[in-house]
What we know:
The structure holds two protein chains of two kinds.
Chain A lengths: L1 H17 L4 H33 L6 E5 L5 H9 L3 E14 L5 H6 L10 E9 L10 E3 L3 E3 L8 E5 H6 L7 E4 L2 E11 L13 E5 H4 L12 E7 L2 H14 L4 E4 L1 H4 L1 H39 L1 H9 L4 H37 L1 H6 L7 H26 L18 H20 L2 H31 L6 H8 L1 H34 L8 E7 L3 H10 L8 E11 L2 E2 L8 H8 L2 E5 L8 E5 L9 E5 H7 L6 E6 L2 E12 L11 E3 L1 H4 L5 E6 L6 H10 L4 E4 L1 H53 L4 H39 L7 H28 L2 H7 L1
Parallel strand pairs in A: 3-9, 6-8, 15-20, 17-19
Antiparallel strand pairs in A: 1-10, 1-11, 2-3, 2-7, 2-10, 4-5, 4-8, 6-9, 7-8, 12-21, 12-22, 13-14, 13-15, 13-18, 13-21, 16-19, 17-20, 18-19
Chain B lengths: L1 H10 L3 E14 L2 E14 L3 E6 L5 H8 L7 E6 L2 E2 L5 H11 E5 L10 H15 L16 H11 L15 H13 L5 E5 L7 H18 L2 E5 L3 H4 L4 E6 L2 E3 L1
Helix pairs in contact in B: 4-5, 4-6, 5-6, 6-7
Amino acid sequence: MTGNIFRLSFNMLRRDWRAGEWRVLLLALVLAVGSMSTVGLFADRVRQALQQEATSLLGADLRVTSTRVISPEYRAAALQRNLAVVTSAVFPSMVSRAQAISRDQATSRAQAASADAQTILTEIMAVGQGYPLRGKIEIDDGTPHEATGIPQRGTVWGDARLIQRLNLEIGDEINLGTLRLRVAARIVRDVDQAVGFASFAPRVLLNLEDLSSSGLVQEGSRISHRLLIAGEPNKVSELRSWLVERLQLSEKIEDVRDARPEIRTALERAENFLGLAALTAVVLAGVALALAARQFITRHLDTCAMLRCLGASQAQVLQIFLYQFLLLGFFAVIFGCIIGYAVQAGLVQTIAAMRDANLPTPSWMPIWQASISGLALLLGFAFLPLWQLKSVSPLRVIRRELGIPEARTGLLYGLGGVVLGGLFLWQAGSLKLGFIVLGGLAGGLLIFGLLAWLALRALSKIPLAGNRALTNLAQHGRTNALQIVALSLGGMALLLLTFVRGDLLDNWRTRLPPDAPNRFLVNIQADQREPLLNFFTAQKINTPKLFPMVRGRLIAINHRAISGDDYPEPRARSLVEREFNLSWSENMPSGNELVQGRWWMQPTESALSVEEGIAKTLGIHIGDTLTYDVAGSQFSAEVVNFRRLNWDSMQVNFFVVATPALLENFTTSYLTSFHLPADQVRAGDKLATTFPNLLIINTEAVIEQVRNIVEQIAQTVSAIFMFTLLSGLAVLYAALLAMQDERIHQTAILRTLGADSRYLRKLHLTEFAVLGALSGLFSAAGAALLGWVIANQVLDIPYRPGIMLLLTGVGGGTVIVTLAGWLATRRVANMSPLRVLQSA
Amino acid sequence: MHKINFKKEYIFMADIVQAANLGKQVESGGQPLTILHEINFSVKAGESLAILGASGSGKSTLLGLLAGLDTPSNGTVYLDGHDLSALDEDGRARLRGRLAGFVFQSFQLLPALSALENVMLPLELHTASNLPASKLPAINNHSISIQERARQALQKVGLAARVTHLPKHLSGGEQQRVAIARAFVGQPKILFADEPTGNLDATTGAQIIELLLELNRAHGTTLILVTHDEALARRCNRQIHLAAGRIVI
Lengths: 840, 249
Ligand SMILES: Nc1ncnc2c1ncn2[C@@H]1O[C@H](COP(=O)(O)OP(=O)(O)O)[C@@H](O)[C@H]1O
Ligand SMILES: [Mg+2]
């Protein structure tokens, strides 16, 4: 029996298909699955790539650092999970140039003879085979190229500063402890460098096997042992949790997110942005699907009545349509996934940044996600309303006016909404983002619908000569309001694509201007401030603002002593065990944002301002009293506000800022950040020699990473919004089709009543223009609103919608809807009314 | 199933349709409105009955009740011995599928389906529902396909040349012939027709009625025909007149 019903369903699907009944529904579904899979696959690859690129800063996915030799247990645990492991050791040491160089070389460098005797402090990095696990080191051993391994035994690679400071050439030898090592190459681009505040000294890369014979490593020397880990993300995070539980006080675990807040923020935004783009596509596809399904069902009322009349039971009617929908869904999902995969692959080829990034192959997850979501959308929006179809009264064959049993419409669309909502949260990956968009959308749709309905009613009251069209619109207020909402959604997608996207991306890009600070200067002494600023003026580098800094340890919250053991979370623990960089300021640091509490009125108050994230990690509330220990003396003060920092500005940021009165009298050093133009690197070297005690930290690599992420996301989002555009068009198309269906019947009746085609044309054009203008207005409002939400909640950038958005929305809406409506009904106006009524 | 049917047919062979105290009330503008009052009559197997009356007299309502498309407010209908009021919606649907064919004023062809496919639909549905073979009597060879049977039915109504046409490419009279072929293809015991000539001109209308009566005679099908045309009605065995929901003589 099931088999036969299935065959009947299949036959009906085939025949209906030929008649074009399924086209809109199929189009909507293919678009939904296509856009979801494209976005999903794309986002998956980009996410993987960004992650990988970011991890090249660390040289690994995960890094364990310890002051003691790292337990072999850790290594075993990593290997057991099929992860790649490399050990390294980093420590400071003095290095000098070995004396035995040939004379002729020396004469050519006679002017630098004094350097021969020079011994400089360097950062030695001894690495094992396989280093780095992520990213590539670029070296120059005569020709610049990517390094394929690590320095051979007996040789080292030195960075530019080492080569310059010791006046070396490739092939020269250096003394390191008891070792004599040949400099085999210059490091052009390093990994594992920009992380932390460690890379101020010239760096030497050494083979780990040479380390044991160097006699450099003794008990108590300032060495940091590192275990670098990389591999499959799931396994890495599994290992991470395993490690976190066993972590000793002397050990620290980092991934790139812990290491660089700038990159963490950029990555999170990137993921949010991608998620949002995908969500928009899903919503639009869902709406197109709902519209198409509604149309499909009204068109199939007669079929259902006829089937019932011919003796089909309700269950059979339901089965017949369910099978058709499942069949259609099956093909649409396969087709959509294929399209999604192809488009995604094509996009990667056309976007330069993507092609060069050598994206990893996508996982299967997005395909599953898109397929399941597609079927859920179909069942949520199309099948559930079918439940109504099954109970269509067979009496309809005699009484045409009997419509769909209306009672449960609310419930059914409610179910569709719940399905969509669930998908939303799933796709968004973030509850917050999902709820923002979902809530905003549901609220927006309701409000727009209501406004549209009110507007139509108000318009019909205008005593215009021949405003038959307006009265007409108001009479079918609910249907028309629904159409306006649908049209607005489509329009909104178009406007988002054209206007808002450009504005947003430009604003985001300019957050990191070309002259963003790329050097941090730490350890400036009070009496060096003047000479330093003079130095900057002399070198024609913009004089930066100097921030005072006092180092202190947090020892009590509300007079209760705290220690690292109070905090199970490693990040919190290390925060408590470390010294904080405290600063003081009369005014709120520029670029920071007050999120809770007040800024101080008087610099003489005693008050503290804390960054919101750290406050949460450490469980600090407004009104708590914090006690700090600064070089043996203590002070306590109340927390009066929380700030949000602006990480992507690359400015100096402080987690804790105090009133001047609190900190002024402690020993203070200063720090700053500035932009060192690429052609003034010499000035940087001069700075280092003039003020030898300063720590100069190069953040170029981080900036480059952040820029890369922004650029890749910008291009990705543009591509993904193409799908939003398509879905928006599908919504428009479905809404226009529904409009057409209704107008056709109405037109035929008016024609039989003797309306001439001029009258009809005027009537329709007015109706369409009003619908279009209202939809355009709402599209612009929706796009502006969504843009604002993205800017504020996702990208954290300023955004102000322009007047052009509104003008384009209203103008475009009016023109497009009028034109499309006219094209659709033009045929009808010329058809014989009998024909229309018969075929309706 | 087949056996039971046979028995029932035997017992109730005399009255294939029987209306007992049939009444229908509806809510209209908050007021109860009686459309049909205590209708009593019966139709013998093979008979042709015309239901006459002015527009709004309740003809369609009565037909709907007789065919089990709607439920009465009082009384009941016996269809081939089955008490319709004892059946639920699906039970009535099964009975309809087994016993009845329909022809309507507005043809009710499915627009996406060709003439042939429209005629095939009831057969496909019956196969799908595994209805007992009694509905498809042995007059026809069982082995011939559904498609072939639909083709033969169309041939009988004179549309052999139009099988692949879509309804919108057929004239009104042709569409109604397709509808008749669809109604007869399953060899029903009863044919219900609600003003089948209402949308047709007089000549075509007469031809359609002629066709219906011919099939009624040839297959012994009971015909219940709703019309407001006295002349057409006179060609049936019996007539019932309705006025304001009551039978008038
Ligand atoms: N569901 C209903 N609600 C209100 N009035 C109805 C309903 N069904 C039928 N009627 C009314 O009952 C009367 C008889 O209808 P109908 O059986 O269609 O008449 P006929 O087919 O003879 O023209 C008409 O006046 C019609 O308006
Ligand atoms: Mg009638």
